[in-house]
Amino acid sequence: MTHAARRLALACTIVLIVPFARAGTPVASGTGGAVATISEQASQSAMAILDKGGNAVDAAVAAAATLGVTDPYSCGIGGGGFMMIYLARDKRVITVDHRETAPSSFTPSVFQENGKDSDFDATLASGASVGVPGTVRGWHEALSRYGTMSFKQVLAPAIGVASKGFAVSENFRRMSAENQKKLQLFTSSSALYFKDGKPLPLGTVLKNPGLAKAYREIAAQGQKAFYQGPMARAMVEAVARPPVAAGVRVRAGKLSMADLANYEARIRQPVKTTYRGYEVYGIPLPSSGGIAVGEALNLLEGYNLKALPRASAEHVYMEASRLAFADRNAYLADPEYVDAPVAGLLSKEYAARRRAQMNAERAGPKALAGDPYPFQNDPSVPQRPQAARLMADNAHTTHLAVSDKEGNIVAYTFTIESWGGSGIVVPGYGFLLNNEMTDFDFSGPHPNVPEAGKRPRSSMAPTIALKNGKPAFTVGSPGGATIITTVLQTIVNHVDFGMPMDKAINAPRLSQRNDVTTDVEPGFGGSAQALALEKLGYKWAAKPQEIGAANAIVFNADGSVTAVSEGKRHGVGSALVQKSAN
Ligand code: GLU
Q1: Binding site membership of 417 for ligand 1 (Cβ less than 6 Å)
Q2: 283 lines ligand 1 (CB under 6 A)
Q3: pLDDT, tens digit, for every residue of 105-125?
Q4: What is the pLDDT of residues 367-389, one digit of tens each?
Q5: Domain boundaries, the chain
Q6: Which atom of ligand 1 is nearest to the CA of 289?
Q7: Where does the record place the region Disordered (predicted)?
Q8: What's the pTM?
Q9: Buried b (16+ CB within 10 A) or exposed e, 171-210
């Protein structure tokens, strides 16, 4: 079949949906392209692009742009992210880092007031937390280097959803209510997402003409429409003079037109580790996600988790995570500013040494950072661990997975940082500005202190695993620092415990991030699993909360693919697979 004929055939494909393999978990299997996102409209946008002959990159941007409409508190063009791409023809994995950067006005003391850390919540809901958004530049790089379609083509489905509107879901209404206080500080945000001071009721059709206009301008003029000209000026203005409601005062920020015009995405090599026969590709710095997941997997490799009682195996998983977090918190930051000991942290020899610090019987105390320097390629790198501190971390974000018929894969996590980001909708353009700068450590010395042009350390961890040189699965999740534990736990559930991916995603999540308590989800406390772990010394965080919202695709041995989304977290996700026309 010629390429053109194949495209035509693809355009006529039938979407095969096999939902609810397990109660509530969207699962779809077939032999064509696949998509898993947390939004039905976003998955449909990706499918529409795949059906028109677009590849996984084209479809991923289409889905992401739609998520910016339907899940605007989690993501959008006012933020940034990390896209991992498996290029089937070249059999290689690359990543597009489009993390927000600190404006040129930033200094290490930008979040210090009177010798103390600025108030976290007040900083978050302000112009001061806004970094230079990277998403549009990231989409541009991904499309122009690895895609086949134009902005105009891939933004069309999202423009449709933004103009025609979408029905407010229960999850959306709840998000509005939970973030009402922050969003209503700003008139532009109140006007878009609230009516008479209240969250829009369930079923209301929410249109976003401002965002449709922003997307149309990008579709017509490319990324410049975002980084130069009126849209850029509107962002600069919103940061300098946030559109606050009467009587409200928030901190202003200093974002310049030059900061926007000079923004660049980075094409970076992934980090890689091996785990029980899989090659696991992770996102490199400035995200700590790939390194922390990789180090924890290296630690876990020393145990036969399958043979252990479930509580003991989960204990080992949590201790591996604890140690990986101690190292992450001490060493990792933007690689263009800090010489982090990545090779040492990911070396198998370092893992063997570090494993000796794991207590196989009992929950450990807070761990100190290890010393990866003897395991570095260049052991002379003169940096020692800094005191590890857990910054306040206040999820959310979104993750999506797409694959196409040619075998290309996109694992994409992107964000505006907290729910609703800074809370500031850019007047006239319908998108929320990020608060990504609160991902810096507010005070040092620490590798992750704020600096002009620097990218704050992230936890985002889109992951692609190969086996025998062929794609095996891809997974990722939102959830701030819990992203790392969700990805790690899902891999352990799938690879070690042999759970099918839907079960691996559905399982209750445990997130140990080198703290005295471990985060769990509602309903976990009091379960047999919880009681068994309590006997090993575990204590649970006081307020159980939903952890993450994973999406995954499994590449089955028979050549078919299985897309999996969430059945209950963050509403309900959507998994679709094309049925290929032969
Ligand atoms: N800002 C977070 C990070 O980059 C992601 C946002 C979240 O999920 O909280 O790690």
Answers
A1: yes
A2: no
A3: 999 999 999 999 999 999 999
A4: 999 999 989 876 555 555 555 55
A5: 3-264+394-456+471-480+551-577
A6: 10
A7: 361-385
A8: 0.94
A9: bbbebbeebbebbbbbbbbbebbbeeeebbeeeeebbbeb
